[in-house]
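Letters spell out the chain; backbone shape is given numerically. Both lines appear below:
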Amino acid sequence: MFGNDIGTLAVYQRTTQEGRLENLKTFEAQTGYGPLGYIALDDIHVTHGVCSDPGSCTFEIDTCGWSNADAFADVDWIRRTGLDNNLGKGPSVDHSTVTAQGHYMYALLTGLRAESQSMLISEDLDISPNYCLSFWYNMFNTVNSSLLVQQILIGMGWEGVTEVKSEDVTSDVWMKLETNISAEDAGDFFQIGLTALARSEQDNDTHRGIAIDDLSLLKSVCGEDISTTLVPPTTTTEYPPSKFDCTFETDLCLWENDPEENSAKWQIVEGHSERKLTRQEPIILLYQPVATT
């Protein structure tokens, strides 16, 4: 979503007059009141099961909406396993599966200048008076470094919630942190940031970094039925790719523009498009199943 005048992106699943769900999905892009802006889609992927709670993630499949904040990115958080040594050594196992194949997020601090930082930022979260944020972290060979939990409210900037200092914890051990977060009367949404901070210059001789895993964000006060035991390895059922999946590398797959909409159309483009959108009508992309007999 780019530009000063972008509007909204909505996802619909239509129902029949009887209230039954139809096998039809729709993406609708709506421009704002001004002349400039565009909305892009890529890599549609539909899987079995329910989505994770917003802000919660094991990182076994993806980052669940968490992303690097460009404004605070002297180095990126990367999703990796204990077998990945191409970007420096880190914890040998994750926390979720306790195996070398399990995934976690890692910020490599080796060789960074003093006050370098890397922020992992959540998706937009609903305003609520009570949240309990919990996750597991691993301060891998860290020296003079910190893991910061912060939140940002609309128009108020980043605010510190808590800080874990390397000198206060044991190195290369998964440890749990939980903290209460309150976001009241702060507009439509807020975000959480997890920042790896090198408080002093880091040498190039030792692999150092901060890892996080198993994020959980619940609308409750911390302290109720909190378990700190390791989660045993689990197996997952492999499903075939969904017919809704599409990378848009060659065509729209089974998706199509809504024939009832004669204004703007979804188009396949490569890289950045300088095309200026001056329309204010909605753009609708839908999946229409083929009737079978």
User: Anything to note?
Assistant: The two ends are 40 Å apart (CA to CA).
